[in-house]
Specification:
about 240 residues; Beta-Lactamase; 2 domains; 10 helices; 5 strands; elongated
Length: about 240
């Protein structure tokens, strides 16, 4: 129904009695919410040319997108925010995120910077995360779910690496429901030792037709209380 076709026609396609045209492949992929990278692969397998371009992020024609993203990151201050690619590698970050990661081992900040690795590595933020047992598995479960939706060797390797770094999964999680896991982080710098409580939002481009743009994610950290808000502002002071 979502694809605007009939069960009979779909059955013919599945059984090989009917060959789908390009528009039908796109409609079915859209209905199944298949990522556009995989839609290109479906088209290739069916003998059609890919229809979704994949432009390098530093290409001049993407300058308006890059500018808009930088404005969003800057506008989120004094709260941390990052833009990452489909593997969780850092594309851009605002000053608040850099303040939050102060004290992280330099080798973890050499490009390409894996944001999940920075969060969970013992030389990263892990020693400062108060609820590491909950937060680590929140991150790992999200990566594994993404790897199931979009099979990718790099994501699977990252999930395996982080699983080895994580503490045992908690049997009970009384402080949250489902995936509602706040990040409880001891601050570094001017607010050294005090606890920040952060919640996260994850945003993606819902109408992008370029593979590169469609795979970008904006992850923003928001203060869960007034004390955290004040500390984040303090961390940005010269």
């Amino acid at each position: 129904m979502r694809a605007g076709t009939t069960q009979r026609h779909l059955s013919f396609i599945e059984s090989g009695r009917s060959t789908p045209g390009r528009s039908m492949i796109i409609r079915l992929a859209e209905s199944l919410e298949v990522p556009i990278r995989e839609r290109n692969e479906l088209l290739l397998q069916a003998g059609f040319a890919p229809v979704y371009p994949q432009t390098r992020l530093d290409d001049p024609q993407l300058e308006p997108i890059r500018t808009a993203l930088e404005q969003i990151l800057h506008g989120h201050l004094p709260y941390p925010a990052v833009v990452v690619d489909r593997h969780g590698d850092l594309v851009s970050a605002n000053a608040a995120f850099h303040a939050l990661t102060a004290g992280v081992a330099p080798h973890l900040l050499v490009p390409p910077v894996s944001v999940p690795r920075v969060l969970l590595h013992p030389q990263g933020l892990a020693p400062r995360i108060v609820n590491l047992d909950e937060w680590a598995w929140h991150i790992i479960d999200r990566i594994q779910a993404e790897s199931v939706r979009n099979p990718d060797d790099q994501l699977q390797r990252l999930a395996s690496e982080l699983t080895d770094l994580a503490p045992p999964r908690p049997r009970e999680s009384p402080h949250h429901l489902g995936f509602a896991v706040p990040l409880r982080l001891r601050a570094h710098g001017p607010a050294d030792g005090r606890e920040l409580t952060l919640i996260t939002t994850l945003t993606h481009f819902g109408t992008a037709i370029d593979v590169t743009i469609a795979e970008l994610r904006l992850e923003a950290f928001l203060p869960a209380d007034q004390a955290t808000s004040a500390m984040l502002a303090e961390l940005l002071k010269p």
